[in-house]
């Protein structure tokens, strides 16, 4: 086995005190970090530093964190972990819709951030590599290569969207509750509306296959197999 290269984390945070602590903890855990204090600088570093994960504060000078996610998602599926204040709940939901993978709320403990960074990286497929291809009709999810197809055409999804789709495909038409989905996604403590945001985004990304994700009122979501 080749030794794993150190993962690169881009810390986007305008409060120097918080950024200092985050970088110190992440580096102590073996990550390589870079820091951006403005949205503009963040996009420059995203292109130059090519991070494996982005830790993104939403309230930034120049460009907002949401604009940063939107720009990055137009061409990249790099995992994005948002950092938000409690009052920014609406922004958080918009961020998830724009394709952020997870979020953490201020005030946070640096250890918690490191744990979440590891979890998001793990989900993004860094460590476990098994053959995991799931199919339902013409929807196909390959959790090894982290790709999805609709009607044979590749669809670009974030790691969280891919896992969500895989869960729905595996359930073979059974409805899954939002809590069940969050548990399976490894996010048991986040707001259930997070699932709605992920699903909304997933439907859009799936194009014609998106309509197969049905809302089951009072329950959650299921993949419609009847239309295949
Ligand atoms: Ca800030």
Summarize the structure.
This protein has helices spanning 16-28, 39-49, 65-73, 89-97, 110-123, 159-170, 178-184, 193-206, and strands at residues 8-12, 32-36, 53-57, 80-85, 102-106, 133-136, 139-142, 147-150, 153-155, 176-177, 213-216, 220-223. The chain has 228 residues and is α/β, with parallel strands linked by helices.
Give me the side-by-side strand order of the main sheet.
2-1-3-4-5
Q: Globular, elongated, flat, extended or rod-shaped: what is the shape?
A: globular
Average pLDDT, all residues: 86
Please trace the helix and strand order, writing H or E for each element. Answer: EHEHEHEHEHEEEEHEHHEE
| Major sheet characteristics | 5 strands, parallel
Bound molecules: calcium ion
Uncertain stretches of 5 or more adjacent residues: 127-131
Helix content class: 25-40%
Query: What name is given to the CATH topology of the largest domain?
Result: Rossmann fold
Q: Beta-strand level of the residues, as a percent range?
A: 15-25%
The CATH superfamily label of the largest domain reads Response regulator
CATH architecture of the largest domain: 3-Layer(aba) Sandwich
* Tally of strands: 12
CATH class of the largest domain: Alpha Beta
């Amino acid at each position: 086995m080749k030794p794993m290269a150190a993962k690169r984390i881009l810390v986007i945070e305008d409060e120097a005190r918080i950024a200092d602590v985050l970088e110190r903890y992440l580096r102590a855990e073996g990550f390589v970090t870079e820091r951006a204090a403005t949205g503009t600088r963040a996009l420059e570093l995203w292109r130059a530093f090519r991070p494996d994960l982005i830790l993104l504060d939403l309230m930034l000078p120049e460009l907002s964190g949401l604009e940063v996610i939107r720009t990055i998602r137009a061409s990249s599926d790099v995992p994005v972990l948002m950092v938000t204040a409690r009052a920014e709940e609406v922004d958080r939901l918009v961020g998830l819709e724009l394709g952020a993978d997870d979020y953490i709320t201020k005030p946070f403990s640096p250890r918690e951030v490191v744990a979440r960074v590891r979890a998001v990286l793990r989900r993004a497929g860094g460590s476990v590599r098994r053959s995991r291809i799931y199919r339902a009709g013409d929807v196909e999810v390959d959790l090894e290569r982290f790709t999805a197809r609709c009607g044979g055409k590749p669809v670009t999804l974030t790691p969280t969207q891919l896992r969500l789709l895989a869960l729905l495909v595996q359930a073979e038409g059974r409805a899954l509750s939002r809590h069940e989905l969050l548990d399976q996604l490894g996010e048991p403590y986040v707001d259930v509306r997070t699932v709605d945001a992920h699903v909304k985004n997933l439907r859009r990304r799936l194009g014609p296959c998106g309509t197969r994700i049905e809302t089951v009122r009072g329950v959650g979501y299921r993949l419609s197999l009847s239309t295949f």
